[in-house]
Every structure is written in structure tokens, then in C-alpha cells.
Amino acid sequence: MHLYGTANINDYGNLQIGGVDTTELAKEYGTPLYVYDVALIRERARGFKETFERLGVKAQVAYASKAFSSLAIFQLMEEEGLSLDVVSGGELYTAVKAEFPKHRIHFHGNNKSEQELRMAIEHNIGCVVVDNFHELHLLEKLCEEYAVTMKILIRVTPGIEAHTHDYILTGQEDSKFGFDLQNRQAEDAVKISLKSKHLHLLGLHCHIGSQIFETTGFILAAQKIIEKIAQWKASFEFEPEVMNLGGGFGIRYTKEDNPIPPSRYVEEMIKAVQQEVEKYQLSMPEIWIEPGRSLVGDAGTTLYTIGSRKDVPDVRKYLAVDGGMSDNIRPALYNAKYEAILANKANEQHHETVSIAGKCCESGDMLIWDLPLPEAVSDDILAVFCTGAYGYAMSNNYNRLPRPAVVFVENGESKLVMRRESYEDLLNLDIPIIK
What are residue 192's DSSP bridge partners? Predict the structure, then answer.
């Protein structure tokens, strides 16, 4: 059994997180329930941020809020001194309502609307990461209308894709994101930005993948980008103030995953950038990164109540829980793997292998296949680990299931940060045609 952060087994044999018994959380708040280990989030945030400080490199660590967005998580990231990466008007609105420092908000996305860009300008956020020529010209036009200057990064595709332990070198990047580094699109975008009276080009941004367990891809991306910057400096005297190397740092979901500490990612990235700028006699840029999953992913645990059971002789044993693809769609979308235990029988030996079914009316609503457990019965509490990223963020109301509640736990206390949806909430947007 692998336990994360502050999780342990208490004297009653129950799973405990943040000093709080998870079976008591299930009783108080109901299930399904997302439980976040605040101390682990703080530890991960400091692991990134303090490495930059220790090595004396100017930097920003921006939480990639698409992993999980809420007022409470934004306030927690602000407490830890992080910046914030948003990708929609809704995430920006949440950040504003959370009173997050606007100068530390970065706005991403490949199809920002005019309304969203106006929001960014009106709230005077810190930076817009420009993704394409349409957006570049639209943002310049809007900044001229408002008579303001907006700081921007140009997102580039460096021809590297990295996932887990694999990385791929490509020629022209086939991606919906960013300006290609090899076919002069990125260079043209840089030149347009430098000529603009209303855009302040801070530098370049790239993002090479997700769930990455090695530093090779980040190093190759830095090398390719800085090589191109050296050419641009020689031809039109451009040097970036900022180099944003994105996120994608991996976490452990199952025993097959072997992530590295946040400090190692940072150390290797800094070393690569320093070597390359020294090689080409360039100025050292400020380094920005964007961890999301690696900050909140394994800090989140989902609690379910077991309901029905179906034993198919010589085939499979199914246990159904009171959630499923409505609160964790990742297994159905891309066969994501998870580990789990019975929170109320955490010390007991495994006696059977079962498969965990969700309650949605879909045969593909399976959370975990072939999970070893103690003998499970109705009303046992199942704890599924590492659901803190893209669980609530991708939750939905399929089959008219209300979204679960979210609680933060720390130092023996729990705090409700997102209430459970009610059936009445499901009707908030409905307009009947017959009164």
C-alpha cells in the first residue's frame, strides 16, 4: 500500500488524511467526496519555488489551474507565493473573485475570445500567452482601443513531444497550440510583437507534454529555443526577458510510475538554460514554469460508498460505487489507472480481486479493473488515490448526477471549500416551456 503526503492508518484501522479520519469525513460531508491534503500541496509548491531561490535564479512558479480551479485553491496558491495560469474567462473570473494578485496571472489558450481578452485588459493581468496570429492582431487592436500596453509571451512549438519516459523529436510540429519554431511563424510573431506600440514582448513559452518523469525533453526544448534566440539576436537584436518552459511534471498514480522530485526538474532546467545562454553569450532570462497536476494530483483522494455487488462466477466480481465517470472521467477517456483501498478496512488483508464500477448508465463507466481488496460489503468506504487533478475539473452532470463536495484537510481539521450540488442546482439553468 502506497500512502501519499500526510495519509496514514489510525488506531481504528481507518485511512486518515491531514489528521482527519476519512470515514468521519464521509459521514459528515457524504460521498462521493474529494479530499485534499493541504500540507502536501504546500510541500510541492515550496519544492519548486525554494529550488529557484536556493540557486539564485529569478523565476515564477505558476499554478496551472486547469488541474483544479476554485476560490480556495487559488487562495492557497497565493499564500504560497505562486503565480497563476488560467485558460478561460471562467478561470480568470474565479481568480479575480479570489482576489488573486492580478500581476501574477498569466492567460493561456488557443482560442481566446474578444470578451476574454477584454477581461484580461480590464483587470490589468500580468501576461497574455499569445498562441496564434489571429490573437496577436486582436490583442494589439484591443490594447490600442484601451490605450494600454499588455505584456505577452509568444507560445512556440519547439518540435519536441514528451510523455512519461518517452520523448519525440519532430520537424514541423503538428499541434493546435503555438507558433512553429522551424517554419518562421515564431520569428514573424516575435517581429510583429516587437514593432507593436501596445504589446510588450517578455519572451517565449513552450509546453512539451504531460505526466513527464524525466528532464530530457525539457533540456532539449531549452536547447532548441535558445539556439533560435541566438539567431534572432544576431539578425534583429532580440533577447527574451522570460523563458517559460511550461509544466507536465509527472506524479505517481500506480506502482508503474516513478516520478522525480520537483527540485530535480528545476535544477536540470536551470542548468540547461545557463549552459545554453553561456554558450551563445546571451543574457540569463527569468525562468517560469507551470506545474498543475504535480501540485494537486496526488494530494487529492476521492471517497466513495460501495453499493451493489455483482459476482459473475469464474469471470469477475463487480463492486459499484456512488460515483464514477461523472466525477472522474479519466479512466473512460484514456484508460487512466488508479490505486485504491477500503478506508474503513485499511489494515485488513486482501481476500479478493474486484473491479470498481461507476453508477452511470454506460458500460465504459469503470474506475478500476482488478483491484485487490479485503472482503467488501455495502456501505464500506472506498478511497481512490491521486484524483486531485482533472477530477473535479472535468466532472459533469451526466445522468443528472450532482457534482461532489470538496474538502480541504490540514492539521486535524477539515474545511468545506465546494459544497455538494443539490438536485435543485441541476435545474438552475432549465427553462420550462409549459408553466
Answer: none
Please give the pLDDT value at position 171.
40
Read off the pLDDT of residues 56-78 as tens digits, 9 standing for 90 and up: 999 999 999 999 999 999 999 99
Which tens digits make up the pLDDT trace of 320-353?
A: 999 999 999 999 998 999 999 999 999 999 989 9
Contacts of residue 127, Cβ cutoff 8 Å, sequence gap at least 6: 105, 106, 107, 150, 151, 152, 153, 202
Rounded-to-10 torsion of CA 120, 123, 124, 130: -10
User: Is it the case that residue 173 has pLDDT exceeding 90?
Assistant: no
Does domain 8-30+299-426 sit in CATH 2.60.40.790?
Answer: no
Would the CATH topology of 8-30+299-426 be identical to that of 38-292? Answer: no
Dihedral sign for Cα 285, 389, 342, 362, please.
Answer: negative
Q: Tell me, which fold does domain 38-292 have in CATH?
A: TIM Barrel (3.20.20)
Which residues are known binding-site members for substrate? 293, 330, 334, 362, 390
- pLDDT tens digits, one per residue of 254-303: 999 999 999 999 999 999 999 999 999 999 999 999 999 999 999 999 99
pLDDT tens digits for 174-201?
Answer: 778 899 998 899 999 999 999 999 999 9
Q: What are the binding residues for pyridoxal 5'-phosphate?
A: 248, 290-293, 390
pTM: 0.95
Enzyme catalytic residues = 361
Domain edges within the chain: 8-30+299-426, 38-292
Mean pLDDT of 370-396: 97
